[in-house]
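Backbone Fold Data
Goal — fold tokens
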Amino acid sequence: MTDTALTRRRSENSHQKTWHIYFGDVHVGTIGTRAGVPKDVDQWGWHLGFYPGTEPGAHQSGSAETYPAARDEFERAWLQLEPTLTEENYEAWRRSRDWHAWKYRIWGNGCRMPTQNSSGWSTCFCGEQIPIACETHIYSAHRGIGA
């Protein structure tokens, strides 16, 4: 991956200040206000890690008094985690993102999954006939559908 910068996107949750943190197109973590905590404790929290792609034991999280402090802590943790990751880690997350987006689009278009038919075949929303083992179709014809 050539882009090494982290970027943030504001969450669509209007009830809480939350930013999703991305490395390229991979959602690697979150920084946001903590819900339900007393006013005299850290109001900002952060979480670093993505699944699939990193094992749950590699995930890190913390809290801070302010957003800039939470961002600094997140970035320090990222600098430790990022060198341990390979393209396969990011690709595992992308494949999961695309598979789930494809599945919800299948359902949203009223199509049946191949597993819902006794023949083990179905028709994708794009018109292609697909078998139960349809991952190749999803990752070639619908690459990036969840981006």
User: Anything to note?
Assistant: Strands lie at 6-10, 18-23, 26-33, 44-48, 60-64, 121-123, 129-131.
